[in-house]
Amino acid sequence: MIATPYLLYLGHSNDEIGIKTSRGLAVFRPDICVGEFRHDDCGLTLNLPRMDFAQAHDAGARTLVLGIANAGGRLGSDLVDDALAAMEAGLDIASGLHQRLKDEPRLVAAAARLGRTLHDVRDPRPDIPVGTGKRRAGKRLLTVGTDCSVGKMYTTLCLTRGLQARGVEADFRATGQTGILIAGDGVPLDAVVADFISGAVEQISPDRHDGGWDLIEGQGSLFHPSFAGVSTGLIHGAQPDALVLCHDPMRQTMRGLPHYAPPSLEDCLEANLRAARLTNPDVRAVGIALNTSAMEDGPAKELCARTADRMGLPCCDPYRMGVDAMVDLLIAMDAPAPATETI
């Protein structure tokens, strides 16, 4: 287990999307975040107290979370130096970067000398099975996207809380490093060998018999040439009864691929439904989630209303506007069909 509370690392970052792990923890688990660490050239903040490592330890922090993403997910020299200083101050280190902490000799040596623990959140379990596609008991929702980093995790967490607020049993199933740190469990899907992706999702969302929902965090996009393979395996393993399509209306090109334009909502939703029917022929769409964080209130609400009319589905910014209409549909899916009168 990763010791809490956390100190969230921003370092030298100036890319809003690049700090999404730290930001996700600050938004959804503020109860276990005591502060943020950033250098003077970092233009971003989580609106948490700014602390150095010794101050954070004195304030109760037990783990520095390297909640940033850089090109290739590498441990740069500055980041390693900061992690070493944090361990000297008494903190463990947790990281979701592709390059593992355990593969950096200086960090391993310091951890051994100081009695600190290195947590590589992107290490999958060793016992992942191959997926079977067998029908499982229970209800499942999967968030899918037109692109990467469009709000799938936020939407899944908001829907989980929305169902719980209505008295429905609901569990968030994390498939990325941020979600795992928030939930305390899950699978780092982009680190799983391709043949085992669907099996990994089946493993974290097994049969459930309590009438509740598993809400499974989506990854990537079927329309992103770099990551569509992960998205496909996730869809098949999730065996979703319901899909929510997530989209950033300000996005002009696919993340990291300026030569690719995002798909239309119609094309993307139909492609995801088609793929999902392999393991659940009865899957249905229950909503469109727009990330309107870069828009003013009025235009954001107008866009959601137009999109709802266009798609024939509830549409909102889940974090900003709530998810009541989507939750209504999910609860209706559990309701028994009305009895028919016989003459």
From TrEMBL:
**What organism does this protein naturally occur in?**
Sphingobium lactosutens DS20
The D-glutamate N-acetyltransferase-like N-terminal domain sits at 48-124
InterPro entries found in the cross-reference section: DgcN-like (IPR011669), DgcN-like_C (IPR035086), DgcN-like_N (IPR035402), P-loop_NTPase (IPR027417)
Boundaries of every D-glutamate N-acetyltransferase-like C-terminal domain copy: 130-327
Its protein name is EBNA-1 nuclear protein
